[in-house]
Specification:
mainly alpha; 359 residues; two-stranded antiparallel sheet; Aste57867_13998 protein; 18 helices; elongated
């Protein structure tokens, strides 16, 4: 290194040149080796021996993580990603890769949503939207809500966002199709976003998710189709087919409202019960309600608030058309020194907007 720096002038110049040769800097390669989160499970899913093993997910290339283990898993991810973000050369390399490689982009976005790094999520999504629309070689793809599809295999972004109650990140995810709508619903072996939020006792997130799910569940809001078809654990009971499959595997599913009732979370029970009542399902014994229980109408359909279908259809996902081909290195470098408290004012504004759903 000393001989090379003598010829080229500075060690920084040598590092910059090396970063653009074949292969990646070690810190960036470590981020690239991270597995994405394919599923999250916890006490609401009961298996025969009480222990989940990886052989139960033989087709998955990502991690299936227990709720109790998720913080440690993501803290390791944080140490790897932030080591790159804080390095002046490696952060530039990463910004280029984020615009080109699906896997490393998913790894970084999962980190960002879990730790509430909204600016980083926005920078990545905005860059990808611009790049996809400016790419004349391929036709842009849009989802059922007319949102531009961003290539991704990360299906647990909403679950990761609500783990620490990052409502601002959750609301932003609803303005982009980075993460599939169906990824939020959970599976026989993994939690839905509502289940994660409920188990973590983040009532505001649960209320927001339920309000959005009710709108997506209503055919009148999606041109005669229901955007959230099939099972949605925590929002409505599993289908008969799923119930039979669970029984065959010896698996049990505890209803999120029942778990909240056991924990004495009355507001959580009330919110989760509203979802079932409005979506056409009712089991008073399961949630401890009587015939005089409050009935709540569906969420309003004519208000274009952030995160709603009306908002999305009115162009909430759109962005400034200025040219940008890589994620801003300045944006991702400054993210290392983020201050979460700066967002609390915006959280208050969004919360007041959310509360009006239930007024």
């Amino acid at each position: 290194m000393s001989n090379a720096s003598t010829v080229l002038g500075t060690i920084d110049l040598v590092c910059f040149i090396c970063a653009h040769q074949d292969g990646l800097p070690g810190d960036v390669a470590a981020v690239q080796r991270c597995q994405i989160i394919q599923g999250i499970h916890g006490r609401l899913i009961r298996c025969p021996n009480g222990i989940f093993s990886q052989h139960e997910w033989p087709a998955l290339t990502g991690q299936h993580v227990d709720m109790d283990d998720l913080p440690a898993t993501m803290q390791h991810r944080q140490s790897l990603v932030e080591a790159v973000l804080q390095h002046p050369t490696n952060s530039v390399v990463l910004s280029t890769l984020l615009a080109k490689q699906v896997h490393i982009r998913d790894v970084v976005v999962e980190y960002a949503v879990f730790f509430g790094c909204l600016d980083l999520v926005k920078s990545i999504c905005t860059t990808m939207k611009r790049n996809l629309l400016s790419d004349s070689s391929e036709e842009a793809q849009f989802d059922a809500l007319n949102r531009l599809r961003i290539p991704s295999n990360a299906l647990q972004l909403r679950q990761l966002a609500v783990f620490h109650g990052h409502l601002d990140v959750l609301m932003y995810l609803n303005t982009t199709s980075y993460s599939s709508l169906h990824g939020r619903c959970g599976t026989e072996l993994s939690y839905s976003d509502i289940e994660v939020a409920a188990e973590r006792r983040h009532l505001r997130c649960v209320e927001y998710l339920v309000a959005g799910a009710l709108q997506l569940h209503a055919p009148s809001l999606t041109d005669g189709t229901i955007a959230l078809g099939g099972d949605y654990f925590g929002f409505r009971p599993p289908s008969n087919t799923t119930t039979i499959n669970l029984a065959k595997q010896g698996l049990g599913r505890v209803d999120a409202a029942e778990a909240a009732k056991t924990d004495g979370l009355d507001d959580m029970v009330r919110c989760l019960t509203r979802a079932k009542l409005v979506s056409g399902w009712r089991d008073n014994d399961a949630v401890g309600l009587n015939d005089d229980s409050e009935r709540v109408p569906p969420a309003p359909t004519d208000l274009a608030r952030p995160g709603t279908v009306a908002y999305l259809r009115q162009g909430g996902w759109r962005f400034d058309q200025s040219v940008q081909t890589t994620v801003s290195a300045t944006a991702i470098h400054s993210q290392a020194n983020r201050n979460v408290t700066q967002r609390q004012g915006r959280w208050s504004q969004w919360w007041h907007a959310l509360v009006s759903y239930f007024e």
